[in-house]
Every structure is written in structure tokens, then in C-alpha cells.
Amino acid sequence: xxxxxxxxxxxxxxxxxxxxxxxxxxxxxxxxxxxxxxxxxxxxxxxxxxxxxxxxxxxxxxxxxxxxxxxxxxxxxxxxxxxxxxxxxxxxxxxxxxxxxxxxxxxxxxxxxxxxxxxxxxxxxxxxxxxxxxxxxxxxxxxxxxxxxxxxxxxxxxxxxxxxxxx
Length: 167
Ligand code: FES
Prior knowledge:
Layout lengths: L15 H34 L10 E3 L10 E5 L4 E5 L4 E5 L10 E3 L4 E3 L6 E2 L5 E3 L8 E6 L5 E9 L8
Antiparallel strand pairs: 1-10, 2-3, 3-4, 4-9, 5-6, 6-7, 7-8, 9-10
């Protein structure tokens, strides 16, 4: 009876702790794999449940106090692609996006005009096209005053080229 538990002559049984270590190691690998799979599953679930919405910057922005714009000036607001123009009569806001193919125009004070660098369209500071392939004038944008006296531009609302904000 006791011979059944003894190894054949010349062979040694591995200590019991070595087999236990291997089993523990495999258990840990299995647990780690399950953990990675669970994290991946949760990420997929969160992505599925999250609304598929494109967040865009607001189309209305405050442009500061009217007095920060000198009379007879054209100011390019680079992060909004808008010109704020002030004349003796009042103020207006113009889109700086060329109506030809959408390039960003540039104010050229030395020539007193707005020019498109792409195909040569030119505009007055009223937005009127004077040269080039642009099919329309630069759009005038809604320009109003907030309750606390700041300029408010709405890039989604175009207005007549005769609209003036008197300040
Ligand atoms: S995009 Fe301005 S002229 Fe073509």
C-alpha cells in the first residue's frame, strides 16, 4: 500500500508547494485577463450610452465695450473670424470669411480694404465686393448691446448691410 505513494526508484516528487505556486500564478493571470476584459466592456458600454453629440463653440460672443474701438477703425477678432467696424455714424460686425470659397480675409489699412489672399477678392469695410470672384458681399452680422453695455455679436444672425449700431 505505501508503495503506491512512493515514486519509482531514481525519481523525486516535486514538492507540493511548487505545484501550488504554478496554480496560483495561473489563477492570477486568469483574474488579470478578466479584469482587462471587464474594463474594456465598461468602456464600450459608456461609449454606447453617451450621447453622440458634436459640441461646437457658441455662435454669440461678447466683444467688449464700444469705446474700446476707435472711431474709423476696423478690428479683426481672430478667434471669432469677425471684423468690428466703427465709423462716425456707428458700428457694425462683418464676417471675415470670404464668400467665394471660404478663405479668411485680411484687413489692409494701407489700402483701406479687406482682401482675400486666396483668389484676390476685395471688399470695402462695409463688406461690399469691389473685385475678384466672390459672388456676394461679406455678411453683416447681428451686433447689439448687452444690458451691461457690451457689444454682443451673433454669427448666426445676418442683418441688412444698412444696419448700424449707434453708440
Ligand atoms: S476664397 Fe476668397 S477669393 Fe476665393
